[in-house]
Design brief:
The chain is of the alpha/beta class. About 30% of the residues lie in helices and about 30% in strands. The structure holds iron/sulfur cluster (2 copies).
Length: about 300
């Protein structure tokens, strides 16, 4: 983060269903109430659901496309160079039968095959990957959603576009990160200043947390952990955090009231002000590295 710039916090979890969006939406609501100029970006482009909690008003929309090759079989001499250049196995190539075909759903639009072809047999066409949409609900708060078209293999281009659309005047940007630790998560975390990992005290929660932590170590990103549904499961997650000296920023106890509120699309902080205070404390702990006094309200 540059001095005076946007502080970007990614809220992530190794797997779905641990409460990542519950935390991101409630943290965003907390910051909105504190009067910050804040944006939440739904980077979970294959299954975005953040907007459902806020019902904001649509402001703008952009289609994200990439360039996919089109092979002219009349000009092709079946040299195979494009097939060799394609790292994504997106070119179906059977020279003995004079068949060559681009599999658009596998193509990443990298342009390597077009560059490789010396016979002018490859041109390109734009293919839609999905939509990035901007919303607002109040003067200082904005929402951005990345949403892939069905069948698109990688949401990375949409995530990059969505994050690039954040207004530079934004004080705090929350990213609701894609689940897992593969490319979409990495691309989101790499653009954040801090990653808030949400886990649960179960063997599955711990296993996914370990993978997320290893990935973030490689990215050299600061991170901390919220344990959701504390009180269920076992104590292994706590031992792991202690061994690795990973900051435990908050425990949210399992509560039927929270579960019922979240599953019915409510912002739980609205009926549980104590949770709002706790999330604000987490936020202040995160900001300690970035000049805490700028964020005191
Ligand atoms: S653009 Fe890239 S991914 Fe797509 S077919 Fe060509 S080399 Fe493969
Ligand atoms: S590089 Fe060009 S000429 Fe060679 S197989 Fe591919 S499309 Fe055909």
């Amino acid at each position: 983060m540059t001095k005076g710039g946007t502080l970007k916090i990614a809220v992530a979890s190794g797997k779905g269903g641990t409460g990542k969006t519950f935390v991101s939406t409630n943290l965003f609501h907390t910051l909105e109430k504190k009067g910050f100029r804040a944006t939440i970006t739904d980077c979970d482009a294959e299954a975005p659901n953040v907007m459902g909690f806020f019902n904001p008003e649509k402001e703008w929309q952009e289609e994200v496309t990439h360039q996919v090759p089109v092979i002219d079989a009349e000009k092709c001499v079946f040299c195979g160079k494009c097939y060799e250049y394609c790292e994504y196995q997106a070119i179906f190539y059977l020279p003995e039968m004079k068949i060559i075909k681009v599999m658009e759903d596998l193509c990443q639009g990298c342009g390597a095959c077009t560059y490789a072809c010396e016979y002018g047999a490859i041109t390109e066409k734009a293919v839609s990957l999905g939509l990035v949409t901007g919303y607002k609900s109040a003067e200082k708060t904005r929402f951005i959603e990345a949403r892939t078209n069905i069948g698109v293999m990688s949401p990375v281009s949409l995530i990059k576009k969505a994050i690039s659309k954040i207004d530079p005047e934004t004080e705090i940007a929350i990213f609701d990160a894609p689940p897992g630790t593969s490319c979409p998560f990495i691309q989101t975390a790499a653009r954040a200043d801090f990653v808030l990992l949400v886990t649960e005290p179960t063997p599955f929660g711990l296993s996914d947390l370990r993978q997320s932590v290893e990935t973030l170590k490689q990215l050299k990103k600061p991170y901390g952990v919220i344990i959701n549904r504390a009180g269920l499961g076992d104590k292994e997650v706590y031992s792991y955090l202690s061994q690795e000296a990973i900051p435990l920023l908050l425990e949210i106890p399992f509560s039927r009231e929270i579960a019922a509120g979240y599953t019915s699309g409510q912002i739980v902080c609205e009926t549980m002000p104590a949770l709002e205070d706790q999330l604000y404390s987490v936020f202040l702990k995160i900001t300690q590295e970035y000049g805490n006094s700028n964020y005191q309200r």
